[in-house]
Amino acid sequence: MSFSNDGRFRQQVRFLQQQFAQDGELPFTDVLSEATISHALEALEIVWLDRIYTPLVTLWVFLGQALSQDHSCRAAVARLIAHRVSRGQRRCSAETSAYCQARKRLPEEFFATVARKTGQALDGHADQSWLWKNRRVLAYDGSTVSMPDTADNQQAYPQPPQQAEGLGFPLARIAVFFSLSCGAIIELAICSYSGKGHSELGMLRKLWEVLRSGDIMLADRYMCSWYEIFQLRQRGIHTVTRLHHCRKADFRRGKRLGKGDHLVEWPRPHIRTIDNRTRKGLPDQLTMRETRVLIQQPGFRSRSIIVVTTLLDAEEVTASDLADLYRARWNAELDLRSLKQTLQMDILRCKTPELVRKEIWTHILAYNLIRTVMAQAASKQKIKPRTISFKGAVQTLEAFQPVIAMQGQHGLRRADLYNQLLEALATHRVADRPDRFEPRQRKRRQKKYDRMMKPRNEVKREILKRLG
């Protein structure tokens, strides 16, 4: 991509950085760097003209949509108008067509590259004290997102087969690698809800290149697969999962490491997805460690789960260490909740598959930038990022952003605002609630509307007949 005005490009990069405390002398200020954005723009085979909706302005407006409670394009353009007027610039049109066309012009890879690089840079700069036994732990999990019921979306991401035609909504599956140390999203994949290779295990094979030798993959019981564990172990990557319900543990066998802790040989199963030549190159057995973890709550009957891992040294990693680590897997569920509920990515708004994917990647970028600000606050206060409330960080950042934007070139004043932002943000701490539970029920009743049992166009025709 060629730039017709390099000075204006740098000015827009600096403004985008200022919105997320990415300039000055604070830690982690090179997460969203000019080099990262330039690298993402290099692949674009378009010329950046001096139009209003340049790639960076489009990205900034799109980020505002992801962070705002009102996700409409009209509100996003209104925020751009207010920003331009406050800086003495000419007011742009309040119509949303130019902004929507600008989003379509930018390829999906631009949004994906900036989001990935931001998360990977934050994880790479994580403080050593945030790691688990000086090891990088990546938590893997999956979820689904819904989107408008359009023909294009239905073709790319068909609704679940249990839903009647015309009554359901397109559904996409996402799989994510989270950094356990700082909560950043390292990698993400998007596919349809069902189909060959579209399970969370199938998507893992597409994403595991992000793992490095010495890393630990933390996942739920559905990732407890012999072949995948072997493949990762060959690359020096350890796994910690829960024992799959189809496999039984017998602590009378194997090498005893302690009470409810032993090494056992898992025989190679029949794997239909590989050819005979590959199968012959696999070992007959795989050494695994199974550890029973007791869950005890006052007033409740104790129950146990079996944690499975390739971390075989009982002196280096005790049974208690494994129990604490697997319990930390729940952070992946909380991170997905932050992404889908706090940032409202649960129900997307775009009406074409390409824009849906861009919307997802923009949410990922917004999420990673918020995690960056949380990491700055944690580093300054000498606490861990996961002790800070994500919701509180979003609310605080949303309140400070307009004030930061008005500072212009006043670097000292902006630095003072950054410090005030980080101090306010660090006060919103997550309470220590290890055994908290709540009923999955709603007290406030919903308004009583009849459920739509026919496609919308048929219901509208019936209404017209009654009116006629």
Can you tell me about this structure?
Strands 5-4-3-6-7-11-10-9-8 form a nine-stranded mixed sheet, with helices on both faces. The mean pLDDT is 87. Strand 10 and strand 11 form a beta hairpin. The protein contains 16 helices and eleven strands. With 468 residues, it is an alpha/beta fold. The longest helix has 29 residues.
Q: TL;DR?
A:
The protein has 16 helices and eleven strands.
How is the biggest beta sheet arranged?
9 strands, mixed
- Structural class by secondary-structure content: alpha/beta
Radius of gyration: 25 Å
How much is the average pLDDT? 87
Into which percent range does the helicity of residues fall? 40-55%
Question: For the largest beta sheet, what order do the strands appear in spatially?
Answer: 5-4-3-6-7-11-10-9-8
Indicate the overall shape. Answer: globular
Q: Beta-strand level of the residues, as a percent range?
A: 5-15%
Instruction: Provide the succession of SSEs.
Output: EHHEHHHHEHEEHEHEEEHEEHHHHHH
The overall strand count is 11
The oligomeric state is single chain
Measured between the Cα atoms of the first and last residue, the distance is 58 Å
* Weakly predicted, low-confidence segments: none
SS element count, helices: 16
